[in-house]
Write a structure and sequence with these properties.
The chain is an all-alpha fold and 246 residues long. It is built from 14 helices and no strands. Helix 5 packs parallel to helix 7, helix 6 runs antiparallel to helix 7 and helix 10 packs antiparallel against helix 11.
């Protein structure tokens, strides 16, 4: 693939099997050429994806494999922003969000126009409890790369960063952008429920809460690190959802 988008077609496909197929391909690439930084970078990335969307059968093992692959990628090519991005996103799901933020900044320092670097910096800051400083890099990353197949997740993260920074109007705009990209997705419904409830639009919030209850899937795991490590954020989200469905 072109340098602007190195992912396999398999990784672009939604779902557990697409990610697993991509992981098998990246594993084979690492075996075929152990010194190919790119192969290790995307093995790390797809490992993070399996954990993030709740598709991992063994989170600890996938986290170790992802961290090892991303670390190897950085060691092989420390001038490649993709390598640092891989290390950053795996750190968010299998290590330290603070370490992830440092790796994301390293990617941006190497290439200030690297959208994924800005996006994962925003994710890392949000997971590390700094929602207000997560807003700008998430917005900037989405501006740099408005057509990425994974943007539904980045818009949802942006919505939470804005909501938790007391910007509910902006948060609702971000959640609606996620809805436009993927009309049936539990995490989007949760974000919309929270945003409309924060704005006092109780009937709308209740409807989104009802839609959320109808969707059953593991995909909401991608904000789990934030809720697990930031109890105050978790309480605010849970409180809004409870008020909407009371």
């Amino acid at each position: 693939p072109a340098r602007g988008d190195r992912r396999t077609r398999a990784e672009h496909r939604e779902g557990r099997e697409g990610h697993r197929t991509a992981r098998d391909l990246f594993r084979r690439a690492c075996t075929a050429d152990p010194d190919l930084s790119e192969a290790h970078a995307w093995l790390g990335r797809v490992s993070a994806g399996l954990i993030a969307y709740g598709w991992s059968d063994d989170v600890a093992a996938d986290g170790r494999e992802g961290m090892q692959a991303a670390t190897r990628s950085v060691a092989l090519d420390p001038r490649d922003p993709y390598a640092h991005y891989s290390f950053a996103i795996v750190s968010c799901y299998a290590g330290s969000a603070n370490t992830g933020a440092l790796a994301a900044q390293a990617a941006i320092d190497l290439n200030p126009s690297f959208a994924l670097g800005h996006l994962v910096l925003g994710m890392a800051r949000l997971f590390d409890g700094d929602a207000s400083r997560a807003v700008a890099p998430l917005r900037h990353g989405l501006t740099l790369n408005p057509n990425d197949p994974q943007n539904v997740a980045w818009h949802i993260l942006s919505a939470y960063a804005e909501l938790l920074s007391n910007l509910p109007d902006k948060a609702l705009e971000s959640a609606n952008r996620a809805l436009a990209l993927r009309p049936v997705f539990g995490p989007t419904f949760e974000a919309l429920c929270c945003c409309t409830m924060a704005l006092g639009r109780c009937d709308e919030a209740r409807r989104w809460g009802e839609r959320l209850a109808e969707v059953d899937g593991p995909e909401a795991h991608f904000i789990a690190p934030m809720r697990a490590s930031q109890p105050e954020y978790d309480k605010r989200i849970a409180r809004l959802c409870q008020k909407a469905t009371a």
